[in-house]
TrEMBL record:
Entry similarity comment: Belongs to the ABC transporter superfamily.
Pfam families (alphabetical): ABC_tran (PF00005)
Protein name: ABC-2 type transport system ATP-binding protein
Keywords of the record: ATP-binding, Cell membrane, Membrane, Nucleotide-binding, Transport
Protein's UniProt keywords contain Glycosyltransferase: no
Organism domain of life: Bacteria
Record-annotated ABC transporter domain positions: 10-239
Keyword Magnesium attached: no
InterPro entries registered for this protein in UniProt: AAA+_ATPase, ABC_transporter-like_ATP-bd, P-loop_NTPase
GO molecular function, one term: ATP binding
């Protein structure tokens, strides 16, 4: 089937999620284009992970819609999900597999054509700096390298949208820098949503920022726009999320 030409890679409208009577996410709108990196911020419990799980088709919304490259995620989940790569907060790694075994498995799960698996694997290994680790057990790798493997599984099927939930948590400053560089590279040709509690990370890597608080979007702007106004992200974050 010919896909519609979509200007947005990801577009969420009125996305809400209730757990029993409690509202975790309330009427979120979110839009991203090719080559944009969005910093997704909010205090603990704001609803970021719940939103990202809905955007990736891992949690059904109570209301609202999500389109990935113009494809409705609820109507055509398989086609829409083929265009999304997701690194959850706890990366879905199998410690007892080697890096190569795991990435081959990830490629199959993402339905990469058998004839293209070798190429896909070589390309993510190169891209994520995993050369020389192919035969090592994932459980024996440092946390930084495990995180690279987590990102590699998220991009092995060459998705248009990459969603990363706190990808630098627990890493040392050198590892953080390396992962940031990788995210910047990925963001030049795809759309990336980056959830993080590190505000300097957003200022250095992202084009736009969206802040959630108590389930709702409370702020959204371009990072350059903030810089031009001479306002730091920390001031904005505190203004919109403290004592409210
Ligand atoms: N499966 C669930 N059942 C009940 N409540 C849930 C469930 N998942 C999330 N919640 C609630 O939804 C709200 C939003 O949680 P969520 O994990 O999305 O926040 P978050 O912004 O990602 O937080 P953090 O920064 O701590 O990861 C919280 O009040 C949380 O307790």
């Amino acid at each position: 089937m010919t896909e519609p030409i979509a200007s947005s890679t990801i577009s969420a409208r009125g996305l809400s999620r209730y757990f029993g009577n409690r509202v975790a996410v309330r009427e979120i709108n979110l839009e991203l284009k090719h080559g944009e990196i969005l910093g997704f911020l909010g205090p603990n419990g704001a609803g970021k992970t719940t939103t990202m799980r809905m955007l990736t088709g891992n949690l059904a919304p109570s209301a609202g819609s999500v389109e990935i490259c113009g494809i409705d995620l609820l109507d055509r989940p398989r086609d829409a999900k083929a265009r999304i790569g997701y690194l959850p907060e706890i990366p879905p790694l199998y410690r007892e597999l080697t890096v190569n075994e795991y990435l081959q498995l990830a490629a199959r799960l993402h339905r990469v054509n058998n004839a293209k698996i070798r190429f896909a694997l070589d390309s993510v290994v190169q891209r994520c700096g995993l050369n020389d680790t192919g035969k090592r057990l994932i459980g024996s790798l440092s946390k930084g390298y495990q995180q690279r493997v987590g990102i590699a599984q998220a991009i092995i099927h060459d998705p248009d949208v990459i969603i990363l939930d706190e990808p630098t948590v627990g890493l040392d400053p050198n590892q953080i820098r390396e992962i940031r560089t990788l995210i910047r590279e990925l963001g030049t040709e795809r759309s990336v949503i980056l959830s993080t509690h590190l505000l300097p990370e957003v200022e250095s890597v992202c084009d736009r920022v969206q802040i959630m608080h108590k389930g709702s979007t409370v702020f959204s702007d371009s990072v350059n726009g903030l810089k031009q106004k001479g306002i730091s992200l920390e001031e904005i974050f505190m203004q919109f999320t403290m004592n409210k």
